[in-house]
Design brief:
The protein has a single domain, classed as Rossmann fold (3-Layer(aba) Sandwich). α2 packs across α3. It is of the alpha/beta class and 238 residues long. The C terminus is likely disordered. It has a six-stranded parallel beta sheet with strand order 2-1-3-4-5-6, sandwiched between helices.
Length: 238
């Protein structure tokens, strides 16, 4: 069976991919990577590779997408297929970078809970920000990961200031998945990323902001199933 490693985002754990793990269990053996103990994107990538099989498929969400792109620089020969969700071609967009930078000091001085409360509606659509079940998942993940790990993850993203240099050399089957209403990692950023990877398929998730896997789980699972099972279109790589 296909080996699939899924890498979560800042302050996220395996609950981020719960629906996809269930939906794709018949076509993939899925492991969710732990990137809570490292302080840089390269260190996170090394940790994922150290625990990975020799060949695997790779799906990264937000911070996890940046770790996945680092893996494509470090060990591209080991990755059979690549999925990038809520992703950019390298680092945070200016609005997100400014928000992260502004949040660091208040979080360090006891403002973690207030930060989470303010953050939730920013990353979900107006409709989904009213759903208590989604907020509970969001908050539970963040509390499980914890403040210190979250700060390390935020600083790691802030250190990434340039696009990844090897995007045009990625040759595995790639899908880029983004929310139509994502204001922090805009769909325009997803379009740019998809253009830079030869043959990449771009999937726009309607009715979703940043957290596509939680807001529109069925649509994301369908896109990932297609990515995992579809025969590679070699003409797109020409």
């Amino acid at each position: 069976m296909t080996q699939l490693i899924m890498i979560p985002g800042v302050l996220c754990d395996e609950r981020l991919f719960a629906a996809q793990i269930t939906a794709l269990g018949d076509v993939a053996d899925i492991v969710v990577a732990d990137i809570t103990r490292q302080s840089s994107i390269p260190a996170m990538a090394d940790a994922v590779l150290a625990d990975a099989p020799e060949r695997f498929c790779l799906a990264g969400f937000s911070l996890g997408s940046q770790v996945a792109l680092q893996i494509m620089e470090t060990a591209p020969e080991r990755v059979e297929r690549l999925a990038l969700l809520s992703a950019t071609h390298g680092g945070l967009l200016p609005t997100s970078a400014a928000a992260f930078q502004k949040a660091l000091e208040p979080i360090e001085h006891g403002g973690f809970e207030a930060y989470l409360e303010s953050l939730f509606p920013v990353y979900f659509t107006e409709r989904d920000a009213q759903k208590p079940e989604l907020k509970r998942i969001f908050m539970d993940m963040a509390h499980n990961v914890g403040q210190e790990a979250g700060l390390r993850q935020m600083r790691a993203l802030l250190e990434l200031r340039e696009p990844f240099a090897n995007l045009d050399r990625i040759r595995c089957q790639t899908v880029v998945i983004g929310g139509a209403e994502d204001h922090r990692t805009t769909f325009e950023a997803h379009e740019m990323l998809a253009r830079e990877i030869p043959g990449a398929k771009l999937v726009k998730i309607a009715g979703s902001a940043h957290f596509t896997t939680l807001e529109q789980p069925e649509a994301v699972s369908a896109a990932l199933r297609n990515w995992l099972t579809k025969t590679r279109d070699l003409s797109a790589m020409a």
